[in-house]
Input
Amino acid sequence: MKTRISEKKLKSLYQLLSDPMIDFDCGELCAPGNGGIPVCCANEDVVPVLFNEEYKYHWKNGRFWKRMPPINKEIKKFIEEAEDYYVFAKCPGPAGCERSKRALNCRTFPLEPYLDKDGGIMGLAYSDTNGIDCPLIGKPMKIFNPVYVRNVIKFWEEMFEYYPEEKETYMEESRKRDRRIKRLKLRQKRLSILRKVK
Ligand code: SF4
Ligand code: SF4
Output
């Protein structure tokens, strides 16, 4: 697999995403209902995805991340269908977590870029987490640290230069989101008309 991000650049991206996302430990919101483990850190249920360069970097520097074996049909399917620059991997879990070794994905979840039709980043939106029950989702965006938000947007602008495929993916996700919002507004409009009729 061709390397697109140099080690120096990767370190600068990690640095960019090192500010706290919010000013409290959100793991305290979800861990008590998940056997004491923050939902997004439960590697058996939520398989972290690393960019190829991240995986190589960590492999050379202490092997914090290890390739996830296809332990069940679902994970096998994820691995087979994913882009070839992704590596599904396992970390030591919250008890052994080292802040500086968190993956780009750990540092951006549960947000993703929202793009306009020309591909410009308009802001961040909650990811479609595919059933991962993150209690931050739906909370007002003002809980997120503005410096963090600004840096995450900068991060995605840089990543799209290295990985235009990611830009395509988020363009599609943004248009799906637009359609969902349009449907929701239409539904709300219909409901308010029904209420008026009643
Ligand atoms: S990001 Fe969401 S799922 Fe992860 S620890 Fe925070 S609240 Fe829990
Ligand atoms: S590296 Fe840390 S933050 Fe990321 S999934 Fe593992 S325990 Fe959670």
Remarks:
- The chain has seven helices and five strands.
- The longest helix spans residues 164-197.
